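User: My advisor asked me to double-check a structure prediction for Ubiquitin thioesterase otulin isoform X2 before group meeting. I don't want to rely on an old file, so could you generate it fresh from this sequence?
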Amino acid sequence: MAEPRSRAAGAEQPQVARRGGGAAVSPGEPGPANAAAEQKGRSAAERRRECVRRSTGGPEEMSRTTSLAAEEDASRNCEMYLPAYCNPSAMEISLDSEEDMYRDAEEIEREKMLLGCKTSSSEYKPSVAPEMDIMEYCRKEWRGNTPVAKRMRKGYEAVAQKFASIRRVRGDNYCALRATLFQALSQSTQLPTWLQSEDFTKLPENLLSKYDWIKQWQLKQKLGRKMGEISDEIKEYLMLLRKKWKYISEIKGPIEKQEACDKLFKNEEEEYSLYEALKFLMLNTAIELYNDDKNGRRVPVFSWLLFARDTSSNPCQLMHNHLNQIGHSGGLEQVEMFLLAYALQYTIQVYRLYKYSTDEFITLYPNDPEEDWPVVTLITEDDRHYNIPVRMCQETKL
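Assistant: Sure, here is a fresh prediction for Ubiquitin thioesterase otulin isoform X2 from the sequence you gave:
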């Protein structure tokens, strides 16, 4: 089977083991909730490694991931999250913000509950950080002389030929959805056709009438809902997605559009509701592809790979072992990036920095997109966490 279409860039560098392809976590297995008491005393590096460990699966993959994570930590400056401020209060604020960028939503929410307070949406820290010069970010993150650090710097230099700045995305297992949706909304000029359909908000009701197992869909840490409650709640999320997309796409000025996106991604309740909508659209797309294949219709190659896994041989397993885990105990695997692209009818272009100097450095999801699909661009260092490149260089525009 053909791999995703990619373009090579840069000189040859030593090979780096990739993160990704981890086994799924079953709904019954312990998740990040069991580690709440342990998180408080951990360093940022330890939390990052734990996040990687949770998002990967089996021991063999974990061994490769741990090796890469250890080398990354050695490559990065030991004070990579400490700005060079003399003011202790400013440093304290920066540290708090930095920690939140690498903590999942459940952990932050548990801490609020333990403290007996509820942060309002206006106080909620943005999940997409303000932009900064992309090479300045690279210099702060990758100061070592290991092969990994050298390759990352080369990768960032290549990206800097196209984009001037980067916006860091919160790493809470929603980062692939967050980065993709943020880019799609910030660039949108019209409501996608599939969002205009009258049947769009009827998806939950229609699918639940055919597939009883969807009532086990996991919504934002809440289990045991009745079928009607699930249908109504997902319908609300889909309506919110259409409302926000329509509102932002109608904003003409680029500055005003960006401000609207920033405001949306500071609203905790609305933001996570949109991710639930995206996950449900991914399930709907998976069901369509599965049925098309069973009925002898042509399907994209990634669909075979999606259902070839032992943990997702059908849409029900995909929901239980993968989609239900997104945002909780795992993020999106590569094959699920294809599914997200098909669900949104967007081409997702990703700079995979650890693949610099190979033909997979720039990867398209899907590898054979429709010509009229809009394109959003992301950056990843490991196929697990995604950030956003912004401010396309003038030469690139021309």
